[in-house]
Amino acid sequence: MIPPLGRELVLTVDQMIEGVHFLKHDAPDLIARKLLRRNLSDLAAMGATPLGYLLTVALPKNVADSWLEKFAMGLAADQQEFGIALFGGDSSSSLTQISFSATLLGHVAPGQALRRNGARVGDEIWVTGTIGDAALGLRARLGELLDTSGFLTQRSLLPTPRLGLQLANIVHAAIDISDGLVQDLGHICSTSGVGAVLQSHLVPASPEAAAFGEAMLQARLTEGDDYELLLAVPRENAAALINCCANLQITKIGYFVSGNGIDIRDGTGKKLPFSKQGWTHF
Amino acid sequence: MIPPLGRELVLTVDQMIEGVHFLKHDAPDLIARKLLRRNLSDLAAMGATPLGYLLTVALPKNVADSWLEKFAMGLAADQQEFGIALFGGDSSSSLTQISFSATLLGHVAPGQALRRNGARVGDEIWVTGTIGDAALGLRARLGELLDTSGFLTQRSLLPTPRLGLQLANIVHAAIDISDGLVQDLGHICSTSGVGAVLQSHLVPASPEAAAFGEAMLQARLTEGDDYELLLAVPRENAAALINCCANLQITKIGYFVSGNGIDIRDGTGKKLPFSKQGWTHF
Fold first, then answer.
1. DSSP summary character for residue A118
2. In angstroms, rounded to a whole number, what is the distance separating the alpha carbons of residues A226 and A173?
3. Which of A7, B10, B53, B208 could form a Cys-Cys staple with A107, CB 3.0–4.6 A?
């Protein structure tokens, strides 16, 4: 393989383990699509254009052929939707649990890959889309809350990678929200050597998530799987950012400060003492 | 990442699943090294020079930190031995079993990657090294036979990828023996549209394997994990092949014919009726 002329290759790998990243009774085509989309979201956070992927599959002997066929149909659907090819892979038996990994390849203009470590004191924190739908959707899948419209469940099962934004000359740092907003903001802070103030009342909620009110705020801010982009943006680029995200909700939710760690503050400026910072597994 | 100037990237991925590719009590550093070496062997079979890798790790919560430290030391040892870098990866918890995957990147001169599908009728079948040591070494690890010197066990736990041979203009097809000699020869045959005659008495055995005699012939020829190269070589290139493998045992073990399937014949020309063709998992 040769990257497109004058472009640089980027790679990312993510896995999905039964009982950790998906539930046994989840639809196999959606497991496949989420596997690809989690990785596509990583490429989006690097500002990359996807090319294709390598796949590993490990299946216990009791998995039905029809299950695997549906899984393959999910791969095929998203290969077409995102214009990516399957380059190769490895399959194996497994004693007890199903697991997958996908290695995604993408390309960027040389030196233009977005990174986590470029946030500077004074930069604003922006996010795409709405935050916390997947956390509530997971609870709906586990029967812990009622998702009448199915929107939250859908956001949990089938995230939308924010590909195609031209952010290279607009943002100082980027990451996709996979572990949870607070934890992923922490990754930017620690690699950039800065702290952050996160203004919880500014964090955008979908109407479906907002309906659950303040009781779900901590879950929405600290649990993962949203696959929205979290960006460090110098104030003077805010207009350009809004312009380049024309078809996408984009919201300022705080700012970077000197020091380290994250202060989460509500609309009155009061610190919120969250008991956990990131996603815990099923 | 950009491949070295004027070179083409190649990729391969392989996984190691607890209870399938390794045993829980195996030394973690050797599991790590075998994970890399299985993939390095794939690169060797493509005629590629290794660059680096991506890693996934899934660990149940009861795995000790010391286990993981030893695993990391194994990775570090082979990174140094083979001049490869860790480019990134993903770690996850797991409910029941340990699993790993590695995606290896390498480079070749454009259009010079060795392939499986180029064998032609009349080509000779050659193998590097000795065949069947790993099959017997696995039996030794399971306590089923006595490996006094430890050689067979070592061959099973720590294969040697046959990197660095300059085979591009010498062979018509290449594969590494991971599933078993007969099965991997079958992969060349089916993708090339040819059949093969495998001369069992010519298949090279180490002295340690030869000591177990004919009783182990089927195991040696049909079980995997040798990570030797299996090559389709036009007769006129045999001398060049021997020359380019100067420091490595290299043996002619049969020839490709028209048709399909593999005839396994002994020294008298009699067909051997093997009951299985390839590796079965633990």
1. T
2. 18
3. A7
Mean pLDDT for all residues in chain A:
94
User: Looking at domain B8-108, which of 3.30.1330.10, 3.30.70.260, 3.30.505.10, 3.90.226.10 is its CATH number?
Assistant: 3.30.1330.10
* A176 in contact with B, Cβ within 8 Å: no
Q: What is the dihedral of CA B263, B267, B268, B274, to 10 degrees?
A: -40
Residue with tokens 């070179």: B7
Cα B71 from Cα B102, distance rounded (Å) = 13
Q: Domain ranges for chain B, please list them.
A: 8-108, 124-265
B251 CB burial (10 A radius; 0-12, 13-18, 19+): middle
The second-level CATH assignment, the architecture, of A124-265 is Alpha-Beta Complex (3.90)
Range list of β-strands (E), A157-228: 173-176, 195-199
Q: Which residues of B touch A102 (CB under 8 A)?
A: none
Q: Is the pLDDT of residue B2 over 70?
A: no
* Interface touch B20/A95, C-beta < 8 Å: yes
Identify the pLDDT of residue B155: 97
DSSP A221-281: HH------EEEEE-GGGHHHHHHHTTTS-EEEEEEEESSSSEEEE-TTSPBP--S--S---
- Assembly ipTM: 0.85
Environment class of B123 (CB within 10 Å of its CB; exposed 0-12, middle 13-18, buried 19+): buried
A177-211: per-residue pLDDT in tens?
Answer: 999 999 999 999 999 999 999 999 999 999 999 99
Q: How far apart are CA A215 and CA A228, in angstroms?
A: 22
| Whether B88 and A3 lie within 8 Å, measured CB to CB | no
Residues of chain B found within 8 Å of residue A93, distances taken between Cβ atoms:
17, 20, 281
Taking the C-alpha atoms of residue A75 and residue A80, their distance in angstroms, rounded to an integer, is: 9
- Yes or no, beta carbons of A101 and B13 under 8 Å apart: yes
Average pLDDT of chain B is: 94
